[in-house]
Amino acid sequence: xxxxxxxxxxxxLALPLAAQEPAKRSALWEANCSVCHGDDGHGQxxxxxxxxxxxxxxxxxxxxxSDGRLESSIKRGHDRMPAFGRKLNDEQVKALVAExxxxxxxxx
Length: 108
Prior knowledge:
CATH topology: Cytochrome Bc1 Complex, Chain D, domain 2
Shape: globular
Radius of gyration: 18 Å
Largest sheet: none
Strand content: under 5%
CATH architecture: Orthogonal Bundle
CATH superfamily: Cytochrome c-like domain
Distance between the termini: 43 Å
Order of helices and strands: HHHHHHH
Number of strands: 0
CATH class: Mainly Alpha
Helix content: 55-70%
């Protein structure tokens, strides 16, 4: 009887851990953005700190920028961020903009 109660209890303990795992990013993000912005978009990687990468997960900042501005920054670069316009096509750039938008947690 104790085993029957123990297994569901252990499963419940694991739920908060699974909920806290960061969302997996796309291969496109991994190849082009993670080195500076990290998987969470906060820019706290070694390279991101060197280049002062923007915290893309900042909800207040995201409210101030349009998708067009994000697309332009990805294509042409911005401050210390390199340009990706020759490397990525329009569809890929739009996919990265959508991924940036997904970094903001709902309700924050």
